[in-house]
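User: What would this chain look like folded?
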Amino acid sequence: GKPLVRGDHLNIGTSNTEYYQKYVVPLEERPKMTDLWEIGVLAGPQESPDFLTNADMEMFLNTKWEAHYNSNRLGVRFIGPRPKWNRENGGEGGSHPSNVIDNEYGLMTINFTGDMPIAITVDGPSLGGFVCNVTMVYSEHWKIGQVKPGDKVRFRLMKMSEALKSQELLDKHVANIGPFKRDFPIPKLISNKIDLSGAVLLTTEEIGSGLQHIPQMTIRRQGDKYILIEYGKQKIDFMARFRLYVVEKWIQDQKHAGIIETSPGIVSLQIEYDNRLISLDELIQIVETAHRKDHNISELLIPSRIIHLPIAINDKWCKEALELYMKSVRKEAPYLPDNFEFVARNNGLIGGVNELREILLNASYLCLGLGDVYLGC
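Assistant: Here's the prediction, encoded as structure tokens.
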């Protein structure tokens, strides 16, 4: 439709107030709106001391972050102090310490795009290459939808048991709204065998070599609805990727209740799960079983296809988008003001942008993961 202008009228349903009163939440049960929000989070998937310093995490939790005006359903940006970081760069992931090779983003995770934290919201990207230090717990998701530009937000670190109890209370509250009563299963308890004090839930040792090589596996907590499985030590490894493909396929074939979706990256795999149907330790046991199986990848045949894509290089629309980005978000970054010049320089191309153009147009690419496949799609 057309843009709304002064004087337009929008007709919303009928005027039968008796009908709508059946579905209205009583005033005393409605959450209080504010301009200073406290939002509960769980540490992970990437926190201190592997990526951020302990002082960075303390700073993050003690700061009243201001919601940036350039926020929407893709993400809510926050203004505040910069972290110091616990490493000089991202290795094979990139030049900035916030870079990683790949990271499947959980809904409502806090994503450090450079030094700026961004809450990945309902239409945000599902796969990228930046560190996420905390993830909001499920029962607190609604709050970020109420945050407006200029509001302040403080993040409160919660325990997993507290997050599950908070979800149970929210489920009971929602079940009693309106005339249709519903029952939600209670979130499943977690055994004491898992160390829940940090983001890393399990690390296995690297064993074997060649086609029998089983890389190190790290399972990271990603809120109370996701886990992130990483293969290797932040290195691009085709054999690890192929093995991860077989592990994912095995998990899918088991058809476990509670496993909602698997999302592969390059050397990582995210699993979204329903903690009402499967507990965190049950899920970890399934992943560990899949990881330790004798998967034969020597004769692996992966379904594939060749796609020819048209491409516009250094076009005016990308340049205009960069100019707008520099005006509205940030003026300085390693990739600014020219993405192509940055890529050419970062890869040591003597011929600069012209050489980069030839490489891009004459190359064939192997797709290992789908980035920026938006969560709301």
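The first strand starts at residue 36 and ends at 43. If you want, I can go into more detail on any region.
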